[in-house]
Amino acid sequence: MPRMVKELDVDTSPGYRKAAYYLLSSMNQTVNPCDDFFEYSCGRWISEHPIPNDLSTYEIFVSVREKVGEKMRELYDSKQLTNSKAVNTVKMIYHTCMDTNRLRSMQGEEIVKAIKNLGNWPMVYGEKWPEEKFDFTEIMIRIAQTRFSSIFMSIHVSSDQKNISRRLITIDQGKLALGFGTREYYLNAKNYASQLNAYKEYIIDKAMLISYDARISRKRSEIDKEADDIIEFEKNLAQIMVPEENRRNYTLLYHQYNLSELPIFMSEMDWNKYFRAVIPNDIHWYLNKDPIINIVDVEFLKRLNALIKICLIK
After folding, report:
1. 167 pairs with which residues across the strands?
2. Nearest to 203 by CA among 267, 123, 295, 291
3. How far apart are the C-alpha atoms of 87 and 280, rounded to whole Å?
4. Sheet holding 256-258, edge to edge
5. For 148-175, what is each residue's pLDDT tens digit?
6. Which residue intervals of 164-297 are DSSP H helices?
7. Fewest CB atoms less than 10 Å from the CB: which of 15, 196, 269, 273?
8. How many Å apart are CA 55 and CA 53, to the nearest integer?
9. What is the pLDDT of residues 134-145, one digit of tens each?
């Protein structure tokens, strides 16, 4: 290591030592940093942590989350009760979800119920799907109440970057179905043809299984066309999204407007109805004050509004 680091009077706590270990284990100190600083600083991490087949990116934060997940699984797998009511409740839910015999007997019953709650799925229900009753705001409300997130938009509460003593409702662009960092998959279909074809087959297979569980007869050829429509819509969605490399200037990701002003940017959403449906009644007084909302990217919201208008409702 460089001499200046050795001469520093640093903390020798266990936490510091562990952090130092992680940093050093990521470096390739056989390389001269003046020749290739990137390889020097993280070359060992890259060589020892190839991107898993089920992910498009892999970083230290993902690795840490995986380790936390492993520890949590050990905790939940144990049938021994703890002194925490919250932990015991989560353990009970976990064991219910892991009851494979029960899940097999139910088949797709629960997911069919969830789809019906969201207004059914035209890919499964075909012509039985009530297109004339489609209500974008109502769908977004049901999605939020079902705890699905980041579909079309990410609507959440976060700290005000310019006043950390308060928190704001924040509206940001959502995520693509293939996950974080997959925008190029949709925009460069030629280079990622195999990935998109695999994704299409996945959609069709799932729709066929759910159709069977819903006791609805659908031909694979019918679903094939609708799978193409889904991917085409996602390509359009990827087109209007801002790439992550253009979202590093936080000053440009800070636009405050009152709740009453949101229809200016996205008229397809009844914002007042949405927030009153997803926010507990005892906090509606906050909505009555026409609160400040932070819109991360105003132009994205406008483009999404236009996309929702011109695309087929399905």
Report:
1. 159
2. 123
3. 24
4. 153-160, 163-173, 292-295, 256-258
5. 667 899 999 999 888 889 999 999 999 8
6. 183-187, 193-213, 220-240, 271-278, 284-288
7. 15
8. 6
9. 788 998 998 888
Sign of CA dihedral 123, 128, 132, 138: negative
Token pair, residue 17, equals 């030592």
Report d(CA 157, CA 18) in Å as an integer: 32
Name the token pair of 66.
């995986």
Residues 6+ apart with CB under 8 A from 124: 115, 207, 210, 211, 214, 216, 218
Q: 171: buried, middle or exposed (CB in 10 Å: 19+, 13-18, 0-12)?
A: buried
Residue 77 dihedral angles phi and psi, to the nearest 5°: -65, -30
User: Cβ atoms within 10 A of the Cβ of 78, count?
Assistant: 10
Residue type, 122: P
Please state whether 214 falls in left (phi above 0), alpha (psi between -120 and 50) or beta: alpha
The full length of the chain comes to: 314
